[in-house]
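step 3/5: co-fold with pyridoxal-5'-phosphate
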Amino acid sequence: MSEEFLPFSRPSISQAAIDEVVSCLQSGWITTGPRVAQFTEALQHYFNAPHVLPVMSATAGLHLSLLAMNLEPGDEVITTPLTFAATLNAIVLAGAKPVLIDIDPQTLNMDLNLLEAAINKRTRVILPVHFAGLPLDINLLYDIAAKYELRVLEDAAHAIGSEYQGQRIGSMGDVQVFSFHPNKNMTTVEGGCIVTRDTQFADQISRLRFHGIDRQAWNRYGKSGSQDYEVVLPGYKSNMTDVQAALGIHQLRELAGFITRRNELANRYQEALSDWPQWNLPQRPSYDHLHSWHIYTPLINEDITGMNRDQFMQAMKECNIGTGLHYRAVHLYPYYRQAFGFNPGDFPHAEDVCERIVSLPLFPSMTDAEHDRVLDVMYRIFN
Ligand SMILES: Cc1ncc(COP(=O)(O)O)c(C=O)c1O
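step 4/5: write tokens
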């Protein structure tokens, strides 16, 4: 194979973004400061939300959000087994118990029809994931949350740019956490943000995010700043830096174009693979939505291909094409089995999907020729 390795994901960083990062580095202010303030404002505008709090990762965002929900030992948070470990880790680190419900095998999102049966008097929070950037049924989700007076923390790590019934994910509901990891729809290298319309909650996040300090600390060292502050709780150090925000400001401006290209590439896969029996292709729900296609994840049919998912990924690698695995079922990792007694067979749809799922290459700068190459290589592998 003489062709260069094609990764399954690659960030698109414009010259304007690089220039902004360089001027930030040269500016004398590189940690949390004016560029984080500018990025925050741009995100507030984007989400049409009063409170957006950039943080150093979505993992930190989920953790701080759950801490700010004041969970007590024994409190339960309902989530999905088809997610990255960060989702469940945040629940445990916030002192609560993760309760899982199986996924809808069509959308791969948490099956909201199973939600009510999992709710009991210890339930405090519903923590669904907009898997791959496909929005959950927001109306149904919030109807159930309202009925039982539960908080909702949307793990929207995959979902910046996604829309439900014409409204952006992040522009409605309780709390959303987005990721700006390099594989995601936009990046700040590492990073993320918390979005909410709840002022008290946002104030608590702001304190938890930076040492428990009760006021914006970034201009303490400037001419107009004051060295004075109070520590009102033992907080974390989860603030975003100005270098990250310099990148984020430009990524956000370019996001709409990224999402358009992601949709083109996903549609191209859907069309090209529609009559391949080797795959079950991603399915869409009937409600109005815009998919952001953070990942394109068909399920392999081993009885047709004669190879399992891991063998397929290896064969692609040998042909210089990268693929991704999102995800292994979280409940079957040793910690979760030991700590919470999860077992194989507990969530059959998720387990079936996790054995068969693979993320094919998809990123905004991917060319049609690279896309064709993926299809050609898959054709050769299967035939
Ligand atoms: C569903 C989900 N939640 C949370 C995270 C954590 O994001 P971050 O890497 O920004 O901490 C990820 C990252 O892959 C994810 O896929």
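step 5/5: annotate
The longest strand covers residues 51-55.
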